[in-house]
Amino acid sequence: MRWRTILLQYCILLVTCLLTALQAVPIDIDKTKVQNIHPVESAKIEPPDTGLYYDEYLKQVIDVLETDQHFREKLQKADVEEIKSGRLSKELDFVSHHVRTKLDELKRQEVGRLRILIKAKSDAFQDIGMDHQALLKQFDHLNHLNPDKFESTDLDMLIKAATSDLEDYDKTRHEEFKKYEMMKEHERREYLKTLNEEKRKEEESKFEEMKKKHENHPKVNHPGSKDQLKEVWEETDGLDPDDFDPKTFFKLHDVNSDGFLDEQELEALFTKELEKVYDPKNEEDDMIEMEEERLRMREHVMSEVDTNKDRLVTLEEFLRATEKKEFLEPDSWEMGSPSVAQAGAQWHDHSSLQP
């Protein structure tokens, strides 16, 4: 169902960095039947833990709501803005009594869990007389004023909390990577200060040699281009490149068969390109930089293909993108995000301001 897929998609963002090694399972296929390909059953995956402290509560609420026919029918055609804004939360007023009872119980369990967390924290700091009810205000994924009943307000708050927590995740990843690069450069330069002139020259020479070695790699195809997808088709899927078909490709890599390519499934498509540049066995290849590059590739493809900006690529969007000139005749792709190239300069600017 689309609304459930969209909501869970926001949740999946938090753990994409843990799942980037995931690839569609190579399939041994009769090429005469290439138009009727479906992902093998073993390739299907369960929604991962989002990393949110209310992850289990979120997924349990979704599962219960899906059991109500009225709610399911009303939200089946909902667009992403209706879901994100919480306007459709009012449909909760029309669900069955049995469903409301289950949701009430889930909320009571969640409030109880939060109170236990608060108590554990207060005990750890030996804080006596703590107002648990006041502290519940810090949790914005439920209405703490009514701890016993699950209301439309709760669904609204749950959706808004999840989207708010997760929509900025990519930005946070970029910022954390930038800090990582700056610190790495800082530590390198500090180490050089501890060496005599001869040793320092040796280290600088080794550093430049490693940089050149890292930069000496095969051509990287533009992410999302025909050449890039055909390489996946041939090397990962084991199919004849002359038989490349975008519709079949989409079905192959819609691993969970939900009718969309989500961000996790897209990121898996870039593994072949990244392996041209990064090898965990090589000292000069930084695997943290590789994951930043994977994120950069995914963001680029999403910006080009995801026309309605719901963080999901439909078959229609995908096929439309394959008709563009950029798909057939893409620009060259430069590896290394701006944050990598600027890290040294930013460190230098920062350090030059120190007394």
From TrEMBL:
UniProtKB keywords: Calcium, Cytoplasm, DNA-binding, Golgi apparatus, Guanine-nucleotide releasing factor, Membrane, Metal-binding, Phosphoprotein, Repeat, Secreted, Signal
Main location group: cytoplasm
UniProt record similarity statement: Belongs to the nucleobindin family.
SUPFAM superfamilies, alphabetized: EF-hand (SSF47473)
Region (Disordered): 195-225, 327-355
Chain's gene name: NUCB2
MF terms in GO: calcium ion binding; DNA binding; guanyl-nucleotide exchange factor activity
Composition-biased stretches (Basic and acidic residues): 195-212
Signal peptide: 1-24
Mode of membrane association: Peripheral membrane protein
EF-hand domain ranges (all copies): 241-276, 293-328
Native organism taxonomy: Eukaryota, Metazoa, Chordata, Craniata, Vertebrata
Compartment list: Cytoplasm; Golgi apparatus; Membrane; Secreted
Originating species: Microcebus murinus
Protein name: Nucleobindin 2
GO CC, alphabetical: endoplasmic reticulum-Golgi intermediate compartment; extracellular exosome; Golgi apparatus; membrane
